[in-house]
Design goal:
The complex is a heterodimer of chains A (280) and B (112). Chain A has 280 residues and is α/β, with parallel strands linked by helices. Chain A is built from 9 helices and 8 strands. In chain A, α1 runs parallel beside α9, α2 packs antiparallel against α6 and α5 crosses α6. Classes of the chains: A alpha/beta (280), B alpha/beta (112).
């Protein structure tokens, strides 16, 4: 089948924190099976992997970058700043975040600063949210650093990132699994790796309750948007939903091999269906 | 994909097996539409043999639910396998479709 007539395949990596490393397993399976990837779309934590995949990084490189980027140092000053906001000694506004983002910025810049959308191996689109308007913003120009930084800026925790005059935060706030972006780009087959946020077992603080509520909101946004995209368009969407038996901590990089294996297993389960459709 | 029909009183049971994807979904849609055209609007889809559904399968199920409900009936699901349940849950379908652990319960639901 020629490239002109075959179906256009897009992968979409949704939000999910460190669980998004499961995308390493997904790409491994697709590459082994010679499934072409014509477009990569990412959101939030998924933006990091979407960027690395689009740049053609190997599984080993992506694992190294995961360990480099998912470090507790990116949460610098979180606890002290949280206390300071509660006792009123730290003023908060739309540009604020609870963490000092200097470590995160340095590491993201080192990873993505010299990679440009225009030179990627595969076309890439990343999703962020305009904090002031609530609109979805699709980023696809220039260096990947500001796009990835904006896409994963968890509101309140991480300061927003300004791109072209817009104050951007985590794309998950509007589009946690941006299948719509792939549809908009004309994908025929969409392989969408998504993650539900885990429920908290016990909540011992107001912040924990807020986080649990946030997880409930986010999971419902994911379900609602996914249902709509499924029904609104003829594109075939293959959901890849890795199973995680236990909630993962934000920086559980020691569980990376297991996360990747779960992504690989979930992708292998879908592979025969994907191959069947592409062969038709 | 294989499909057959069994009747239990006024309830028509569509027994499907295999995978529902873009290639097989039209067959399933046709099969269900034929039953509706024959006047069977109280449907149960027994999905014990369905190991997979993609977005095309979801569209068929929703279309059948809308059609049967518009005629005073319904499409109810039974024996949903874990992988299919996961997709139905993710897309919110388990909130809008009535589903039951087995065929008998789905049939009985029409008599409640």
């Amino acid at each position: 089948m020629s490239a002109d007539t075959r179906k256009k395949v897009s992968i979409v990596i949704g939000s999910g924190g460190i669980k998004c490393a499961a995308a390493i397993g997904l790409v491994k399976v697709l590459e082994e099976a010679d499934i072409p990837i014509d477009l990569v779309v990412g959101c939030s934590g998924g933006s990091m992997y979407a960027g690395l995949i689009a740049a053609g990084k190997s599984a080993e490189e992506m694992q190294e970058r995961t360990i480099f980027l998912w470090t507790t140092e990116v949460m610098k000053d979180y606890t002290s700043n949280l206390k300071a906001t509660q006792d009123g000694s730290l003023r908060f506004n739309e540009r604020s975040g609870l963490v000092d983002d200097s470590v995160m910025n340095t590491r993201l810049e080192e990873t993505f600063g010299q990679i440009f959308f225009e030179n990627l191996k595969r076309p890439l689109l990343l999703v962020a949210t305009d904090l002031m308007t609530g609109e979805r913003v699709v980023l696809n120009k220039g260096s990947l650093f500001p796009a990835v930084r904006a896409s994963l800026a968890i509101p309140i925790i991480m300061p927003p990132w300004e791109v072209d005059g817009a104050l951007l935060v985590d794309g998950a706030a509007v589009d946690p699994l941006p299948v719509d972006v792939a549809i908009q780009e004309g994908a025929d087959v969409i392989i969408a790796m998504g993650f539900m946020l885990s429920n908290r077992g016990r909540m011992r603080s107001m912040t924990a309750v807020q986080q649990q509520l946030n997880n409930i909101y986010m999971n419902n946004i994911l379900r609602a948007t996914y249902a709509f995209y499924n029904l609104a368009h003829h594109a075939e969407i293959f959901p890849i939903l890795p199973d995680f038996e236990e909630p993962l901590g934000m920086f559980d990089t020691d569980k990376l091999p297991d996360i990747i294996a779960r992504g690989e297993a979930a992708a292998r389960a879908e592979l025969p269906h994907i191959q069947r459709l592409l062969a038709a | 994909m294989e499909m057959k029909l069994e009747m239990d009183g006024t309830v028509a049971i569509v027994i499907a097996s295999g995978s529902i994807d873009a290639l097989t979904a039209p067959e399933l849609a046709n099969f269900i539409n034929l039953q509706i055209q024959d006047g069977h609007t109280r449907l149960v889809a027994d999905l014990a043999g369905v190991d997979y559904t993609s977005s095309a399968g979801l569209r068929v199920l929703l279309g059948a639910v809308k059609e049967t409900r518009s005629k005073g009936g319904d499409l109810r699901l039974a024996n949903i396998q874990p992988d299919v349940k996961k997709v139905l849950d993710l897309s919110g379908f388990t909130s809008i479709l009535k589903h039951f652990p087995d065929r008998a319960a789905a049939i009985a639901s029409y008599n409640g």
